[in-house]
Amino acid sequence: MTTIETPRSGKIGSGKVAPKYNRSGSSRGNFEMIAWLFMRLSGIVLVVLIFGHLFVNLLVGEGIHAIDFGFVAGKWADPFWQFWDLAMLWLAMLHGTNGVRTIINDYAEKDSTRFWLKMVLYAATLVIIILGTLVIFTFNPCPVVDGVQLPGGFCPAP
Amino acid sequence: MPTKPAGTLYRGREGMWSWVGHRITGVVIFFFLLVHVLDTSLVRVSPEAYTAVIGAYKNPLMALGETGLVAAIIFHAFNGLRVIAIDFWKKGAKYQRQMLWIVLALWLVTFAGFAIRHLSLALGGH
């Protein structure tokens, strides 16, 4: 009778064993497949969004020298750039969070370590996404405190 | 007596090293992103706070840092498209090695273009 070798284990009797999977399984349905697909779809969109972001902010005109409060105010006066930056924020944060989640799952072997690293990750993600979204939508190009305009604001001529 | 795990099928050469590069650049970009959202959020504090912090970015050291970051972004972007091609194109796995060299060639051209423009703006006289 022919002996069929175990894949990845080398010759039987070589003393090598296949890596053993010893984590408890979970019943998360097809979450991992959705996450896998999301990485690819968001990745394509992010290439366009981020290359566009870098081009417009760093390579056009006088590049980085042009970036100040007025530059941001000028961009966010346009719903096009508000939406662009919002899409970039959400997609990049979710894409990056899922990437780091994968890395934590790969390298943190203790159940509790893995759990807490991911909790810290998700907390950071939540804070950054909420903060960024609020900033984009509550941005005021001409901030006024107690009836006095803050210096450096982007105010229309009176 | 079993001693140590056997090697996996996926070890060494272009496949593994592109994967390592993808992970490292991904983590670098993610941590930058956290900081970048925080610094941009300063526009909500005050115009002066934002302009002051952005002003601190405008020095030669940060210009080099930005250039390195963009090098990581360009690699991650092009190699990510290669990963998509490996997964969805039926000949993707067969040509993964050739595609990595295409990625590296595109990376070099794109990065050179960016670096020349950005560094001459950032370091040049204003």
Automatic annotation (TrEMBL), chain A:
Keyword Endoplasmic reticulum: no
Family matches, as InterPro entries: SQR/QFR_C/D (IPR034804), SuccDH_FuR_B_TM-su (IPR000701)
Record flagged with keyword GTP-binding: no
Coiled coil ranges: none
CC per GO annotation: membrane
GO MF annotations, alphabetized: metal ion binding
Alphabetical UniProt keywords: Heme, Iron, Membrane, Metal-binding, Transmembrane, Transmembrane helix
Compartment(s): Membrane
Residue intervals passing through the bilayer: 37-60, 80-98, 119-139
SUPFAM superfamilies: Fumarate reductase respiratory complex transmembrane subunits (SSF81343)
UniProt-recorded name of the protein: Succinate dehydrogenase
UniProt organism field: Paenarthrobacter nitroguajacolicus
From TrEMBL, chain B:
One Gene Ontology term, aspect cellular component: membrane
Entry keyword set: Heme, Iron, Membrane, Metal-binding, Transmembrane, Transmembrane helix
Location of the protein in the cell: Membrane
InterPro entries membership: SdhC_prok (IPR039023), SQR/QFR_C/D (IPR034804), Succ_DH_cytb556 (IPR014314), SuccDH_FuR_B_TM-su (IPR000701)
Stretches that traverse the bilayer: 20-38, 69-89, 101-120
Binding positions for heme per the UniProt entry: 76
Free-text comment on the cofactor: The heme is bound between the two transmembrane subunits.
Cofactor needs: heme
Entry-linked Pfam families: Sdh_cyt
GO molecular function: electron transfer activity; metal ion binding
An annotated GO BP: tricarboxylic acid cycle
Family the UniProt entry places it in: Belongs to the cytochrome b560 family.
Protein name: Succinate dehydrogenase, cytochrome b556 subunit
